[in-house]
Design a protein that fits this description.
The chain is 15% helix and 38% strand. The chain is of the alpha+beta class and 215 residues long. The longest helix is centred in the N-terminal third of the chain and has 14 residues. The radius of gyration is 16 Å and the shape is globular.
């Protein structure tokens, strides 16, 4: 689990100035841009067309972010763990965040690589009583490239309405093209959200992340 991986680390990684080549690089660039060009401007810059956020129910990111003014000071965050597909085109990042007014929490971002670079498709967070630990380098788990994944990492239909057709449904899922990484989320009527990630091991799928976030 990302939460368990985070607990094993101890210091923040230094930022890189290299162009984003991995989801970790993209996360760091995203976080830097939030400070440089504004929080919501950065969110819009890196969001995929069908990106999802929660408020606390599921909302299309592009609708939620449209015209939203940047706060005077942005939140800060850093990747501390990443669960990747074998082809490294999809990753689930997690790590600590802090707000300008002193609140702490853990973020989770799903990144997908497209022809024009990395874009986040899922963004979620949960507050924590104490700061979440972070290590000198992110702890990375890459799916096995051995064997032949059979079926989908997560069963069930992707009940996600296309952007522009109304509000997103309360459940959605996705997977990497090579089927070595899959995730899903579900929001209850009271706003409680569950998020899961499964990764191919070479013989089957193992659950790498399980989160149940209170509204």
């Amino acid at each position: 689990m990302i939460a368990l991986l985070l607990a094993a680390a101890a210091a923040t990684a230094a930022p890189s100035t290299a162009p984003p080549s991995t989801a970790i690089d993209a996360e760091r660039a995203f976080a830097r841009d939030a400070q440089r060009i504004g929080q919501w401007t950065a969110f819009r810059k890196y969001a995929a067309r069908d990106a999802i956020m929660f408020n606390p129910q599921a909302v299309w990111a592009r609708d939620y972010l449209a015209g939203r003014k940047n706060p005077r000071r942005a939140i800060s965050w850093t990747p501390a763990a990443s669960v990747m597909s074998c082809d490294r085109t999809v990753a689930v990042n997690g790590g600590p965040y802090s707000t300008p007014d002193g609140h702490h929490g853990r973020f989770t971002t799903v990144w997908m690589k497209a022809r024009n670079g990395w874009h986040w498709i899922y963004d979620g967070g949960e507050g924590t009583a104490k700061p979440v630990p972070s290590g000198p380098v992110p702890l990375v788990s890459v799916a096995s490239c051995a064997g032949h994944p059979k079926g989908a990492p997560i069963a069930g239909p992707p009940a996600l309405s296309p952007p522009g057709t109304g509000k997103p449904n309360d459940y959605g899922r996705g997977e990497s093209a090579d089927r070595t990484l899959g995730w899903d989320w579900k929001v209850e009527k009271d706003g409680t959200r569950t998020f899961r990630v499964y990764q191919w091991t070479g013989r089957g799928y193992a659950q790498r992340v399980y989160q149940r976030v209170a509204p």
